[in-house]
Each structure stands twice: as structure tokens, then as C-alpha cells.
Amino acid sequence: MPKQDPSIHLPLKTNWFHILLCLADQEQHGYGIMQEVLERTNDKVRLWPATLYGTLKRLIEEGLIEESDERPAAQLDDARRRYYRMTKFGRRVLDAESERLQELVRILQVKRGAEAF
Amino acid sequence: MNPFVRISLATYRRLAYAYPQEFQMVYGTDVIRLGEDAIEEIWRRYGFIGLLRLIADLAIRVPLAHLAELRQDIGYALRTLIKSPGLALAGIVSLGLGIGVSTTAFSELRALIFKEMPAAQDPKALVAIESPVSYPYFEHFRDQRQLFAGATAYMAMVPFSIALEGAVNAKSERIFGHLVSTEYFQVLGVNPARGRLLSPEDDKPGGPPVAVVSDRFWRTRMEADPRAVGRTVKINGQAVTVVGVGPKDFLGVWPIMPADIFVPLTVRERLAPELADGILQQRDARSFRALLRLAPGVTMANAEAALETMTRNLDRETFNAEYAEKNRAGHSVRLLPGGVVMPMKREDLPMMLGFSGLLMGLILLIACTNLANMLLARAANRRKEIAIRLAVGASRFRLVRQLLTESLIIAAAGGAAGLLLTYWLTNAASSMKLPVELPFQFDIRPDGSVLIFTILLSAIVGVAFGLAPALAATRADVAPSLKDGAGSQQLRAYRKFGMRNLLVVWQVAGSLMLLLVTGFVVLGFSKSTTINLGLDTKPLYLMGLDPVRDGYSPDQAAALFEKLPDRLRSLSALRGAALSDSPPFNNINSSNMQIVGIGDGQESSTMLKGSTRQSVGTGYFAALGIGVLRGREFNEHDIQTNVRMTPGSPAKAMSMIVNQTAARDLFRSGDALGRRVTAKDQSYEIVGIVRDMQASLFTNAVAPAIYVPLTRRSLARPSTSGITLLVNAAAGPDAVDAVRREIASIDPNLNLFRVRSMNDQIAETVSYLRIAVSIYAAMGIFALVLASVGLAGVTAYSVAQRRKEIGIRMALGAKKSQVLGLVLREGSALVAVGTVLGFAGAFAISRVLSSMLNQLAEAMNTNVGNVALIVGAPILLAALAMLACYFPARRSTKIDPLQALREE
After folding, report:
1. Is B27 on the interface with A (CB under 8 A)?
2. Pick from B37, B45, B53: which is nearest to A48 by CB?
């Protein structure tokens, strides 16, 4: 995989962002991702199955995530399920996106601050 | 489980199976499982809407996945095509050329045949009666209101001598117009640009004569005079008022023979000698063309049948029964489309389209063969790649689709190239300057239906020849392909009489056919362009005279012509001068003439096939410079002999001169001189025999020719081309001036038109032939280009495929010459078979074409035995094929055998 510039994926598509966010700290399977996104957004964002797998496929093609061959602890493992994890490039993209968002938030705060005066 | 949930889940599963196979292999079960896991919860949370969204999500994603895969296919196909650009280019170039050339040629032809008359309304409802009718018959037809919404009779190509009153150069000019019944413009639905068109009022006898002029006449002759309407012009010496100007581009019913002035049929005969002898009342004077507008709902076939019945009834009334039967035998009324620029007989259409269709079809076939060859070659080369992909689990469908995508891309690129070429060629053709001025705007546009046909054809070829090898390749047992690689498959296939070899053979055969057929035609026509009349044409000059149009009465005209030749012969600049009813070598239309010869007391009837007939004055053959072989020329007495006065009653015998062929045909062994013959109820005595000359400038053939005296009657009423004055000038062009002066001294108002030398006349005729020759030559060259592209592409490719074999042979000690010999030997076997088939095809085609077109028949027959062509064409093709084999073969022998082997 050649070194790629993370910024080509910015701003990150919403679905991509949510999936990367789910995989930021752990490996996860499709159902898990769907549940986590649902919980995190208070049921506002649901990744419907076909959309979810379509997006996962795209993310794999773009080298942002990959299928995991490590399985979690036996009692937690659902053998039927395929697990996904973030690649190094995926992490760089996620970082770049969060920096971009932070920057936007910072600008907003500065503006708000200016208003306060 | 809730029934809604159950049904939704079933739908969901079914939809999930519609994913493209690759996606399904990886994610199919996951997508289904996720749906199964989540569906209960979705139902609880969102109810019915949730189920709908679940399914809608899938329904949108499935086609998107397919599209993504298609995009991949196209990308992959483009990359592989770019990797071997030579072959792809060969396919695209040949397809583009084939489509471009054939579409252009066909569009051109259709533009000519189906072009509708400008300015007319609803030209599709207009029909024309094929042969002329008499005016009383026409009046009868016109009154059939239930059949015809309108009808008009006209005489076309009527010459008028026109002088504009008050114009600077008041000298009259000779232009062509139509004598029309006053319904003419109304039937056509033409509106005037200025003034008015003709109306029934204009038919009233005694009123001032009126005329309508064309837009072209108004612009070029009247300098677009805004007060043109109401102006008086002198037509044939008579004052006529211009009442209107026709619409732009309108040049009458038959724009091929354009009309610049429209004069009512009811004018006095001094204005139009064509109308003399009360021709409008004569029921047997078939001198008028009838144009009819079909009433709504009436078909051409209905009208034709009705006209036929009417004509039979009228014939019965007009003639006695026996004469009517004899007269009508084999005749029937036939209608032609009337609203087109070039009315054509229905039976002529397939012939017109057939010949070019055949050539175009050959070109297209060769182009498609090129493409097919290329696709087959590619597929064979990729067996190994396909085997690998099959082995690692790619679906057969996917692979076939991949290969199909590639062939369709080539077909599409070829189609696009063809489209561009068509547009370019048609543009070029439209702006090409023709040596003859066409009376109408002849703009060729690519013909939509032809274009669609050719592009569809290329798509079909792309699919068919992409599919066959794709299926074959993917059916292949994976193991041997993987083990042996592409090379060995190639090796085995090469020796078999396989699809590819068949195609190479066809390619050679098809190209040779095209080359030979176009070659025959080109040679035939170019032989005609080197005209050798067998006489000295240099001192000959031709000019037209038509004193009747210059205001002469028929008697005055006849008197003028009686003294004119003698006066001209007295000029020292001339060696001879003579009159005739048509220019020499102008008999384009020949006919079969029934002639009864009377000799030794017994009659024998002979049909003179394709004979020509010309009326000539005294001293004609002397003026031509050939004289008569035996007997004598016509004298004053012959000219003054009266023709038969009433039909059916033979009068005094007239004199006749025949050429050697006619003499031989009529009186096989005996001497023709002094014999009596009868033609069309008129008896003649043969007084002279002249040398054979070719019948017209268009053919080299000699036909039987008969010459009859140019009588007072024909002098008084000349044909559309007037009376031709032939002079043999000793002093070159100066002599023409002498003739002009002499004629001006007789009457300064006499209009001398179309003054040209015989050589000019020949050059003009030849220029038509030159166009034909260059078109066919161009097609021959296209055939050659296509054939070389195809042959080079395929042979080069198959030789390149054998690099491994060549490498092994070289490694085992084969000499370069042996390897080259091997490759060339196999190539030449294919070329030889193709050549034989090509010859057979070419001769078959030339037979078929000869039976369709006389002109072609002559060209073909005289050249089927042409050694240069018959030997040259195949040698040229074979040489090309051999070159195409040789170069890649030599390159293969140059490489290191080890390297060739390692490549696998």
C-alpha cells in the first residue's frame, strides 16, 4: 500500500466517520457497529445493513479498515461474524478529520468569544 | 413472528441474492444475518416504516454495487486495451473507416433519391404519371375529385428566348421553363415570394399573356429588381407581363431539370411552338406530364389502378379497338412519387441501392472481419489469464462480462470514429465542387437510419465475436491452460482450420472481391474517358440555333435553315457546315427499332437492338470529316420530301443513311444500298452507308445507327436543344466568329447558344465519368487499406504469439530462414485459399451487376479479362499479407531464444 495523503478523504463522509469512530478503540463486527452508532447518536443515526456493508467494502478498498483475523476472547466471540479493525492509514484519516473538526470548533469559539465582549 | 416481519425478511433475503457475485461471496451472508438480527428490533422501534426502510436501503444498494462493478470492468478493459494498443487500434480504425465510408456513401445516395422538392407543401402526397399523357386525358383525370385533391399538367424543359424590356443588354437569352396548367402552383402548395402565382383567370383567351419567374431568375437576370412584378419581358419575341416571383429554391416540379419561368399552357403558339396544331385538343398527343395530389386516404396503388381503368376506357373512345389494343399492349399507367427531386421508377430503386449496397456491404464486412479477427486473437492470448482468474474463484459470468465489455468498448470507439468520419466526409462531399451545377442545394447529411444500422452492426459484431471466444475461454478446463500457457493453445489452434484461419481467408477473399469489382468498374469507366471517336474532332464546333424562339414563324424558320448551310459553306474559314436535330454522339437513349426490310421481293422484319436515330441535314458527314463510305449524302430534294401526312397511310419514300452495323443487321449478306425499308409506317430508301462510329460518348460500343433527313417539319419545330449547327473550321476559333458574323448579317436577333468545340463537349462528358471513376477508385483504396490493416493486425499478432515456439525452434538449431519460411508458408496457404474464393466471388458479383446495369455490364465485360488487374490485385494483397507475416516473424527470430522462453 503506497503512502497516501489522508486529506483526500476529507471532509469525511458521515457514515465513514461513524464507522471509523466505532473502530477507533476496538475491533468490531457489523452488528456491533450498527448498535454502537445507534447508541452513540441516541437512535438518530442508523446504518442500515446494506449501507453498512457497502460502506465497509468501500473503506476496505480505500485501505482505511481491514478484516481482522484476531478473534476476541472466546466467551465474547461470535464465530459467525466477521470482525473489522482500523488500518494505520485509517487512523491517520480519522485523526485528520478530528483535527479539522476541532479547528472548526475553535473558530466558532473564537467568534463566540468575540461576541461576548 | 409477525407476518409483516416475515414477509419483509423474505423480501430482504431475496433482494440480497441479487448482489453481484463477488460482493455476495464476501458480504452476502453478513448482510442477510445483520438483517435477520436487527429486523425484530426495527419492527418494535419504527414499525412498518422501519421495515420499508430496511428493504429500500437494500434495493438502492444492490444496483449501486452492480454499477461499481461495471465501472471496474470498464477501467480494467481500458487498461488492458492500452497495454496492447496496436490491435485495439486496428479494430477501431477498420471499424471507423468501414462505418464512415459506407454510411457516407449510402447517405449520399439516399439524399439524392429521397430528397423532397423544396417549397412544396406535403410533397409525399404528390404523384406523377410516369409517361406523358395527352391534355384531354389529363382533364379527365383532373376531374376525379374523389381520387385527386388537385392535378396539373405541364411541359418540362421548354426553351424560351427571353429579353428583358429596358434592360441594358436587350439581347435575348435562352432559358428553360415549364408550360403549365394554371393549377400548377396551387397543386404544389407553393406560395409566391412576390406578386401572385398563376390563377384560372390567366387561362382566359385574349387576355394579356403572363408569366411567373423563379427566384433564381429574379436574382440573376432581373438583378433582384423590387419592381419586377408588372414588368414586361419579351418571350420568343412576344411581350409577356411578369405577375409574380416564385419562392426561394423553387425551380419547378422536377428540379433535376430546372425551370426558371412558368408560362400558362393557354398562351398562343407563337409564344410556345410546342403548343402548335391545337395540341391541347389532341387526344393522342401524349406531350404532357401530369402531377397529381392524392386525395386523403387514397393510396398510390388505388390511384394507379383507377388511372389504368380510365386510360383504357379513354383509349377505346379515342382509337379504333384494334389500334387501341395494339397501342396499349404491354403498357399500363404507372405512378412515381411526384414530390421528390429525382422521381424514380420503383423497379430502379433496388438496382440503384443494390450496387452501392453490395460494395458498402463488402466494406463493412471486411471491417467487421478485422474486428472479429482482433477479438479472437485477443481471447486466445488470454486463456491463461482467464484460467487463473477462474481458478481463484472468479465467476464465469463475470469474466464473460469483462471480455464483452472490452469488445463493446472497441466497437463503441469504432462507432464513434465512424460517426466523426461520416460527419467529416459528408461535409466534405457537400462542399465539394462538382463540375456540373446542380439546380438545387445538394446538402448531404448523415442518414440517421443508415448510421444506426452500421453502428448496430458493429455492436453486434462486437458482442458476437467477443462472446464466442469469451465463452470458449471460460469453458476451458483450467488445468491444461495453466500448465501449458497461452502459447501451446495457440500452436495447436493455428494448424486447425479454425475460426481465425477462416476469418483470414474471408478477409483476403472479401478484399480481393472489392478490389476486383471496383477495379473492373474503374478500368471500364476510365477507358470511356479516353474517347477515340475515330475522327478528327479538333476542327469541329457545335452551336445551337432556335429561330422559332427568336420570333420566327415556322415557315420563316424553315426558309432560314434552307439557305443557312450554303451561306456558311461559302465562308472561306469553314471546310463544312451542316444541321442536325441533336449534337453528334449524343444518343444516350437508344431504343430497339422494328424495321422491315424489303429486298428481292420478300419482306423480312428485323429488330435493330439499341439502335440510335438522328435527323441530319445536307453535307453532315462531310462536315464531320468522314464522308459516306458508299452511296451519297442527303441532298436538297431529300430534305424537302414531305413526311406522311396522315397516320397509317404511307407516303413517298424518304431517304435514309445507315451505318455499317445497321446495314449488316438488316441485310445480312446482301448489299443494303438502294434497298427499301419501312419503319413506323414510313418507307425509306437507303441511299448511303457510313462508317461505324461509337453511339455516344458514354460507351465504346458501336450500335446500329440510322440517319434520316432533317425535314422542314423538324426544322420548324426543333427539340429542346434546338437545331445543332455543326461546322468544320479550318481556322480554329476564328471560324466561330466568322459564323457569328454571318448569322448576325442574316438577322442580328438570331440567338446563337451553347457554342462549344467538339473537344469541349467531350471534356464535359468525360468529367461526369471522372467523378464516377474517382469514387470507385476511392472505394478500392479503402478496401486495400482495410485489408492491409486487418491482415497486418492478425498475422502480426499470431506470429507474435508464436514467439515461444520460434524460440524453441531456434534453440534447437533452426535457422532463421527456416523459421521465416515456416511462418510465410502457413500465411501463404491462407492467402491462396482466400484468393481463389475472392476470384469466384468477384466474378459472381460482376455477373449479377452486369445483369442489373447496362453501363456496368459494358465496363465489366471489357475488363473481366484484364490481365493487369486480375494478376495485379491478388499479388498486391498477397504481398501485403506476406509483409505483415514477415516483419513480426523476423523480429521474433532476432530475439534471444532464452528470453522468449522465459517470457512465459
Report:
1. yes
2. B53
